[in-house]
Amino acid sequence: MSQTFSKVATNLPGENAKQLLDRRHRAIPKGVSYGIPTFADTAEGAIVKDVDGNTFIDFVGAIGTINVGHSHPKVKEALHKQVDRFIHTGFNVMMYESYVELAERLAAIAPGEFDKKVLLLNSGAEAVENAVKIARKYTKRQGIISFNRGFHGRTLMTMTMTSKVKPYKYEFGPFAPEVYKAPYPYEYRRPQGLSVEAYEDFMITEFKNFLNTEVAPETIAAVVMEPIQGEGGFIVPGKRFVQEVYQLCKEHGILFVSDEIQAGFARTGRYFGIEHFDVEPDLITVSKSLGAGVPISGVIGRAEIMDESNPGELGGTYCGSPLGCEAALAVLDIIEEEKLNERGEYLGKVVTSRFEKLAEKYDCIGDIRGLGAMSAIELVKDRETKEADKELTQRIVKEANKRGLLLLSAGVFGNVLRILMPIVITDEQLEEGLAIFEEALEASVQQTVEV
């Protein structure tokens, strides 16, 4: 008999989780959301155990933060060793070698045959904020272009650059000036009658028109693009669109910034998602899975651009902390030693194949998309009208949770199920997780029929 990895023996929340949930509601503002109503006790690899003894297969990975898995032995070892030496000195007070080594290694693996330098920070939003600062400093321009449906963070600047109004922007204005939203391809929802190629031509023309009708290109410091939109619904742009935007940036002296915070570090089968598009960004923002759960982020960029800022203009108290650096160095070792780029590509093929079989059976699956192990399905009420089915999506997530699978939705319509399992997940765990996914889908569809 094969091993079962998931087991939910209580209602959610269980008794211990109920007590913690009550304390949580009394102490923590409701503006801090949560997915599943329980609390983690231990986690290893792709398995999370809660405080009531329930075990879950993780298809969320802390929203793409745990590519090398929960509590990887090499990460734990690196952190223990660093804690025994020192916890923090502040790199801008007394430096430490791990910051330098991590910068060297990130520069070496980033695309582009040119000299690069690396600034280390704390969070993804902070990386994007600093990419904006660096671009403005270098170009002596103020304008920033991001894209429809993009997500870049929750700080003032990154919230401004983000598209989704609720829950990220509603009643939090006014927003930062000189930020412009350009159209971004959404192939599944292209105008009826347009071929994929014609739609890509159309979107390229739209971006060119944008530089004439919305903002003058000579005022733009940077274009910031997710190579595959994360929170926006795992939407993959056409390769030619990305390359044309990149070329227009070059023509107008605009920096091209690839936001790799969710797509980086083996998630798409490459170190960086932008590698699928054969362009070499001027700046790259990284975070999430770089630290395997330890806060760290960074900006990788052309040396001459990164060096434009003067001493003291970049950095912060905890930026590039010793613990974050050691965790990240371990992550890079793990990706190389365990061949996680290849594993990410393989996982994507397995998941996509399974979703395609489900689509033959369930009409609610409107689209299947992604790059590597960054996979998703979009759920609709009708394949012809493509009306989003947010309610079904939410039911599937709850049904999956009840059966021992952590799952997360996405998309501006809230109707996309995104898959972000740790890339170290075993074949057996993956198969069980996909089986639970199918059970949750079937049960949720049946509930719809009964209603």
TrEMBL record:
PROSITE patterns, sorted = AA_TRANSFER_CLASS_3 (PS00600)
Give cofactor(s), names only: pyridoxal 5'-phosphate
BP terms from Gene Ontology: gamma-aminobutyric acid metabolic process
UniProt cross-references to Pfam families, sorted A to Z: Aminotran_3
Name a GO molecular-function annotation. Answer: (S)-3-amino-2-methylpropionate transaminase activity
Swiss-Prot/TrEMBL catalytic activity: (S)-3-amino-2-methylpropanoate + 2-oxoglutarate = 2-methyl-3-oxopropanoate + L-glutamate; 4-aminobutanoate + 2-oxoglutarate = succinate semialdehyde + L-glutamate
**Entry keywords, A to Z:** Aminotransferase, Pyridoxal phosphate, Transferase
Transmembrane region(s): none
The EC class name is: transferase
> Would you tell me the protein name for this molecule?
(S)-3-amino-2-methylpropionate transaminase
Organism in which the protein naturally occurs: Priestia megaterium (strain ATCC 12872 / QMB1551)
